[in-house]
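CORE FACILITY INTAKE
Project code: CF-77B
Contact: R.S. (postdoc)
Sample description: multi-component assembly, two entities in total
Requested service: structural model of the whole complex
Turnaround: standard
Below are the sequence entries exactly as provided by the requester. Do not edit them.
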Amino acid sequence: MAKGIRDKVAILGMGCARFGERWDKDEDQLMLEAYEEAMADAGIEASQIDAAWLGAAFDAQNIGPSGIPLAVALRLPDIGVTKVENYCASGTESFRGAVYAVASGACDIALAMGAEKLKDTGYGGLPVRTRGTTHDMVGITGSAPGNFAQLASAYRGVHGVGADDLKRAMAHVSVKSHANGAKNPKAHLQKAVTMEQVLNAPMIAEPLGLFDCCGVSDGAACAIVTTPEIARALGKTDIVTVKALQLATSNGWEMQAQGWNGSYFHTTRVAATRAYDEAGITDPRAQLSLIEVHDCFSVTELVTMEDLHISKEGEGWRDVLDGFYDADGSIPCQIDGGLKCFGHPIGASGLRMIYENYLQILGRAGERQRQDSPVFALSHNLGGMPNQNVSSIAIIGRADA
Amino acid sequence: MSDFGILSFGAYVPITRLQRSAIHATNGWFAGGLRGLAKGEKAVANWDEDSVTMAVEAARDALDGIDRATVQRVVIASTTLPFADRQNAGIVKEALNLPDAVGALDIAGSQRAATSALLAALGGGDTTLVTAAEITTPKPASEREMTSGDAAAAVLVGAGTPIATLAASHSVTVDFVDHFREAGEAHDYDWEARWVRDEGFARIMTPAIAALLKKAGVDAAAIDHFLVPVAVKGVPEMLAKKAGIGEGAVADTLAANLGHAGAAHALVMLAAALEKAKAGERILLASFGQGCDLLLFEVTGAIGSVKPRLGVSGWLARRIESTNYAKYLFHRGLLPLDRGMRAEHDSKTALTALWRNRKAVLGLVGGRCTKTGTVQFPKSEVSVNANDHAVGTQEDYPLAEVPAKVMTWTADALTYSPDPPSYYGNIDFVGGGRMMTEFTDFAAGALDVGADLRMMFRIKAYDENRGFRRYFWKAAPAF
């Protein structure tokens, strides 16, 4: 394997807009909200940014094509701005672009922005999307919950978990994230929910009820990255560096061959293994301080615990019920409320997760701050559907770890 | 005995049986006269079916165990063909994965379209697959709504070892307009039933039947199966009596449990008769419509050697009862429910891509790697085999007739479906191959991991902006 980028890039500043039904703002205003916080944190001027990346998924509904919307919204000084789209990993992809630019030495300072304005579609849930003229003739036009719900039927079949047990574990995921989100002023949903509410909610896609699904929100998040040396030169003393950035994309094996059993994400397993190698993590269950995973649906979070090699295969649901991933558990998962409470403005999510990990490592997470000084924090995104997807992992941590 | 005749037969009846009492429960306040017809059930096509998809199923039923390469010509007869200008028989041909070197013909315009098509096939020399299908959309609260049903049938005609041969035929053509439907319109306009019965069925068919029997030199009493595909009760018996055909020969018109399937009904009844017929028996098929077509068949000793996969009786046994008249109306476009913004999704089809991928899309032909044996859908240049991404090694591998099993599934209430929730998931074909597809014809609660499946040719999406319909294959419960 290549030697990787561990500790070559530092996060100079981050910002995050308040997520929610932002009827009051356009996408450029949301991006500015995140940008201004990030710039204040970084302590630099726009003229110091060498290049920028914009992560956004739904051209037709909001931001529009190319890097121009970001350049215009922030009035960037005619630098190179690239738009990236990789389904729900788009936010982490923009981060990857900026980080790689700095790691390569091509840029001293680069900006990553992720944004999405989903509430201008006129309805709940993600917009219906074409996957290309040929695919649309043979593929299904399902919804995101419908695609991910299939994890549950397969997981039950493969691991012999009863429908009620799995439903309870899934419900625990949502109850836990709502409890966390209630402490986060930037979250869309800031109310705790009970197990009964989750279990008795209307069905969206069997077996996912309303509270098994993340919200649909508007939002933006921003990161400014540089080298650790420049960060120090700019006066930063408490440095957070990028330990690993990995992306795995399905090649069609899950969807077309018969080796995959439908109960897990092949790409997450691959990306996680590579990311731990790159970050030098040998025992993620012992070494990770906290994680933000792509909890688009409760069942996704549950199987991801196994795909990240933290829970044993077929036993993630037990760890979940045991509170291993609760805010006061061994490895808090979605300590900020997750997609569950922030909603999932596609392009923004990856950066929003890194933002929380960044705050936690720096001890700046307020009421929800983890008190045991987090060292390594992982964020994870999934795009597409279980049988054909992209999976991204970003591990950040203390520079000295 | 001629070696040219009917080689095999099949049928198709949609799974849903709408209870006529449910129709009357809604419309009885307005059309009280329908009370007498509010008994039994009618077969109604699902939202994703049309005359083409039903003809495909009937053809598959007829071609079970038969080498499809023998088919030289494909015909579809219907007055409800989905396309006015795109060869409907051509779609049937692609769905059946027949070779390109076949002829094709659409026959329409009359209730006796199917018998006219069958007569033409019997008069020719080619091995011809004659399909007939009808999906009717009568006006709500009409008598026709009560009596009609949706169904299809198929007959393979050609040289070989026929199970029945044509002994004689007789046709009469007169412009007797008992009902009509303008091109492009959905609904029929009907004239008085008593006039149709007395001046139409009786006065036109009776002498024609006599002429046929005379031509054939067959005594009326020698008819074993008298098939009169008309919806009016008592007419077959009346015609039999006038002709001197024995009462016991009058065939069930399937009015009670299927309904009258328009132009397809003659072949549906013929398929039902062939299921029961014995060697040496005579079948008289009397089809009405601007005159009549009369076909007299003699059943050969080969009867029983070829059987449809299910036949009329098998399809009738596969049923889900429904009392949801509103759902039926919605699926026929007669009840404009608010479908929500998700239904606004544009389903434009790239005709270029459809042409390139026609075997995969219409024929469900996948690929099999000649090096590793890996089966996949769709076929691709580079194999999906995880251990050997062989390039350019794949041969065609038809999957439509391969049984499959449910690997994952969901019932999705969020995505737009005309029949919510939308059932879809990953399926594995027995022997290799996997795809994500929609499920159809499943009763609530019947779907689970490991369930056995059979692929069915269905409408995938309607492009309402351009009047196109996209076909693909869906997974139905095995049977």
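Facility notes:
- The radius of gyration of chain A is 19 Å.
- The mean pLDDT of chain A is 96.
Invoice: internal transfer
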